[in-house]
Amino acid sequence: xxxxxxxxxxxxxxxxxxxxxxxxxxxxxxxxxxxxxxxxxxxxxxxxxxxxxxxxxxxxxxxxxxxxxxxxxxxxxxxxxxxxxxxxxxxxxxxxxxxxxxxxxxxxxxxxxxxxxxxxxxxxxxxxxxxxxxxxxxxxxxxxxxxxxxxxxxxxxxxxxxxxxxxxxxxxxxxx
Amino acid sequence: xxxxxxxxxxxxxxxxxxxxxxxxxxxxxxxxxxxxxxxxxxxxxxxxxxxxxxxxxxxxxxxxxxxxxxxxxxxxxxxxxxxxxxxxxxxxxxxxxxxxxxxxxxxxxxxxxxxxxxxxxxxxxxxxxxxxxxxxxxxxxxxxxxxxxxxxxxxxxxxxxxxxxxxxxxxxxxxxxxxxxxxxxxxxxxxxxxxxxxxxxxxxxxxxxxxxxxxxxxxxxxxxxxxxxxxxxxxxxxxxxxxxxxxxxxxx
Lengths: 176, 252
Hints:
With 176 residues, chain A is of the alpha+beta class. Chain A contains four helices and four strands, in the order H-H-H-E-E-H-E-E. A four-stranded antiparallel beta sheet of chain A has the order 1-2-4-3. In chain B, 44% of the residues lie in helices and 21% in strands. Chain B is built from seven helices and eight strands. Chain B has helices at residues 2-28, 33-65, 68-77, 84-98, 154-165, 212-216, 222-230, and strands at residues 101-110, 115-116, 121-124, 130-133, 138-139, 142-152, 171-180, 189-199. Chain B has a four-stranded antiparallel beta sheet. In chain B, strands 2-5 form a two-stranded antiparallel sheet. In chain B, a hairpin with a 5-residue loop joins strand 3 and strand 4 (130-133). At the A-B interface, helix 1, helix 2, helix 3 and strand 1 of A face helix 1, helix 2, helix 3, helix 5 and strand 7 of B. Strand 1 (112-120) of chain A pairs antiparallel with strand 7 (171-180) of chain B.
């Protein structure tokens, strides 16, 4: 019977298997490295290419914009549009001062007349100096102005009887 | 052999370095592919917008050529120059027409910037992202006030105010004071009024193409009809007449 030393062969076989596995692992890592390197490089090139495209598009935009802005007829367009826009705001304004005068005309009660009228559109105030037949007419006048939608607050600043027997009074009215 | 042992961990380190510090920033970093793609979309959108504005500008020029009457009305309503000489002439003409005596006129400028810089505006891309666009500066008219002193009876003063309101040039009566003057016995009244006029300098240069009109490609002429409906008093233009005098201190 021949004795064969199997254990030596097994160890050699295991060594060979380990080496092959290690080699396989290295190859896989090398492939992964290659893939990652290619992806990284590709992404960098792609980003660079996109940057170049952005620069080209922005340059085209700047060219067109500069051309449009330098065009004399486009200045006329902007000027006309500015005038239209501003006029639209202006034409809608009411002539408050004249409207207030008309409102005072409409709301003046019998037995009262005005000696001084002062309307201020910016301060939104109306100051009146009036002469009335008596205090009852003054009260009616205050009530009449209070009932108008043009006036928000009616204040009698002073009232006194003159030498002629008339009631002289002044009012300050807030305009709406 | 030792070098081979070191090769594997070295490659792993390189893989990690490339993945973390190169590949990921190159994709999603501030200078990466995603950011550059978004930037490109924004730039293309702006280019498409300016191309549309270029087309619209052509049709606006055609509209401008066909609207000389509307332009005339607008330029009367909101002139390019102060033309305060016209204001004096018109106030005098209206006063004469109404039958009141114009005893004084004083002019005062109001300081105002001619252009107000707008806040930044944005347009949205197809993903709803905001892309900053240049907005057009807002034009602001320059104002000046004419203070007038008039004498006349109530009906005539009232007529003066009504006529000024109908003038084909924009104006607003800022304040008005009517008192019984020295001739109170014959019903004469004294009126002091402050009337604001304005003008808008002609556009010298375009600061940006952000004006809405280039996007819409049409003028809204509705305002001209409103002006026509509200105003009826023609503007008197001043003529210098004969000029030149050998003795400037002589009346003749």
